[in-house]
Structure formats: C-alpha cells, structure tokens
Amino acid sequence: MPLLPKSLILVYLFALLVAPGVVAAQETTPSRSEPRRIEGYRGIWFDLGQRSEFGSKYSGGLGTYTAKHHPLAVYAPAAEKTFFVYGGTTQKDERHLLAMVSYYDHRTNQVPQPVVVHDKDGVDDPHDNPSIQIDEKGHLWVFVSGRGRKRPGFIYRSQKPYDIESFQRVAEREFTYPQPWWIDDTGFLFLFTKYTHGRELYWSVSNAEGESWSEDQKLAGMGGHYQVSNQQNGRVITAFNMHPGGNVDLRTNLYFLQTADNGQTWTTAAGEKVETPLTVPQNRALVHDYRSEGRLVYMKDIGFDADGNPVVLYLTSSHHQPGPGGDPRTWNLAHWTGSEWAIHEITHSTHNYDMGSLYIEEDGTWRIIGPTQPGPQQHGTGGEIAVWISEDQGKNWEKTRSVTQNSTQNHGYVRRPKNAHEDFYGFWADGNPDEISKSHLYFTNQSGDQVWRLPYDMEEAFATPEMVGGER
C-alpha cells in the first residue's frame, strides 16, 4: 500500500479529533496577550420582539438573563473575591453582545474594569450570555452559550487561578442554557440544552482536568424543556417543565430528577431509578400536573434544605403574553419533605419573566430576593426588588424589605452567587422594557438593606461601586 502524503494524514487525524461526541481542545498554547477591557459595566439591552397589547413578551436590561444560565457568580474564599459574568455591550445604543467577566474584591470593596472573554460579533441576543464555575484549583471556567443549532457555545478556562487576565478556549460545542457543575476529583457534570426536537435537555461529563468530554446524553425530550439545577456534595439536582408539541408558549408541568454518580444513574426525589431520556409527560419524575389545570410554569431557582432535600422556586401563569390576562402570576415553592412534595404559594407578580433567587441559610432562614413588586414599567419584565422570608421551611412567607424603590427603570433577573458572601448576595441588571436604554448592574447584601451600582463608566483601572440604596 503506498504511503499517504503527510497533508492527507494530518487531515485524517484532525477529522478523528472532531468526530461526533469528541471535542478537540483549542488554543492549547496559552495566550499571553493583554486582555480586552471595557471601561465600565454596561449590561446588554434586548427586546425579543414578540409584542402584544401590553408590550414585549420580555425585554429590557438582560445582562443577567436567563434563569437557565447558572451560576452567574461564584464566591471564592481563598481569593476573597466574588467572580461574576454577564452579558455586556460597548455602549448604550450599540446592542453588541460581549461575554464579560469580572470580580468584586471583598478586601478592597473595589471592582476592576471588566474583561471580554468572548465577543459575539454581531449577536445582540442575551441567550448567548455566559455562566461561570471555579474548579478545585481555582481556575475560572466561563461557558459562553450558543443558540439553536447555528451558533455554537464556547468553553474557556483562565490561565491562572483566581485570575481574569487571560483565558484559553478549551472547547467549541453545541449547547444553550449552560449549567456547569464542578465536582472535586471528578470534573464537570454539565447540564445544557440542544435544539434537537425542541429544546431538549442533555448532559455531558468531563475528565478531572475539564479538557476532554463524553458524548452528549439526552435527559428529557418531551417536546422541549427549561431547567434549573444545583449541586451539593457531588449530587446534582434539576427541575424542569415541558413544552407540549414543542410550543414554548405552552410550557407547563413540573418535573424533578437527581444524580449522585455523575449521570450514570438518575432518580426521583424518592430515590426511584428513572430511565433516560424521558419521552412521555406522565412519568415518575412528575412533581405536579399543571397541564391539567391549564397553568403555565416558569422555572426560577432550585436549592437544598438542611437535610439535603430539594426545594424548587417557580412561577405559574394563565397566559404567555404580558398584561392582566396572565393573572394570577404566582410565585410557588415545591419542597420535598423526605416523603412527599409540598407546594406553597409565596406571592404574586406582574410578569412571567420576573426572576429571583432562593437562599436556604444555615440558621434555618429561607429567603427570596426578586422583583416581586410592580416597577415603573408595570407590565414589563422585572419590577422593584424585595426580600421575602420564611421561618417555617417555606410554608408561610413575609415581605421584610423593599430593596429598590422609586426606580426609573425596572430591575430584574436577581442571581444568587454560588457560596454567596453576605456582602455580594444578589446580582442583577436594570433597564426600560419599553424602549432601548442604558442597563446598569447592581448587587445587594444579605439583608437587602444596602444596594450598590457598578460603575457604567470607569476612567481608572479600579473603582468602588456606588451605594445607591439603604443605609449610608
């Protein structure tokens, strides 16, 4: 057999590396170029464009969108910094999406000029926003979402631990709504969405270095799904809805699954093994049948109680369009007590995409921080931020504080950092849902009695966020 030309051998080897199910590492030689910085914290503004009598299906300042990107911030005790990502842009009137990373230094109370991890180059859609994780050695991992089957996702790893100066691109993959969970001594269990037959749920696992990945495995395919997930002591939990006939405007039902062995086995909250992928709506993972009640389900957050039992935060609605036709829009909590799912109502809201976060704290306090109050653009996405407290494991709730008041723009998508530090407890953006506007980024402390705004313009390398609410 004659020898193949060297060029053909190289082409063949490359084809093997990028075969389906195998992701080749990119830029394996670390880049030492200076980071591209933006001189201020400028969130992306977006309008989906699906308008009806009471405005857009969702729009406004969506730098911390979506609820299905998680986590968006991680507190690192070793560095005494909260690292965070968001969808940014260069200036108010240029809807140009940049996947941004930065940190808040708890020692100095300052932030640096944020760094561009990935320029989406012509995309203005915050579905392409990033999420972030930190591995056991302190390296930052940024998962930049793709969209559909046309725009790929990207995985980046910081060159140095606890450092935002330089990132290496590790992989390019098909994924949307990235939810990466790092498990020490194991690697990533990565939950995400692919637009195969609707928005279907998948998972993939990495090696201990995060540099090679398994084939994608389908978790659920019942017309489509949106999920929220979390991780504790190597156990990953996920809650999700389903889309009848692939129609996202009919999203309904509430499901739950968990794995304690890196995706090898999936079970219900009661520990019953479930074969994946789920393909029919009536199955053992079903928590509550909202479809039979004609209710829509919007996923918000998920956590663990003191015994490690799952707690799911979600909103139910009467209609997918904004306005009073969707009322009542009810914030709900589903709590696995150890033997059954207990469902409790919390409060009501003005928009389906009012998104907040759930905090279950060591002293037994259950806390929600979110835009539950009407904002200046009443029928638009978001509103005024409030704190809700439960002292009886979610059975009863009391609004204890208004975090924002008399705002000129709606606030929305309050995100809970992983390992949240009490001084950087919730992170969000504002914006006018009715017209293009500047979008500022904010954070609050645990009690919600102080609010800081990140600087929109920065002349120096570091700046101290401005206190704009609470005690001065």
UniProtKB/TrEMBL annotation:
Gene3D superfamilies: 2.120.10.10
InterPro entries attached to this UniProt entry: Sialidase_sf
Signal peptide segment: 1-24
One of the Pfam families matching this protein, by short name: BNR_4
Keywords for this protein: Signal
Protein name per UniProt: Sialidase domain-containing protein
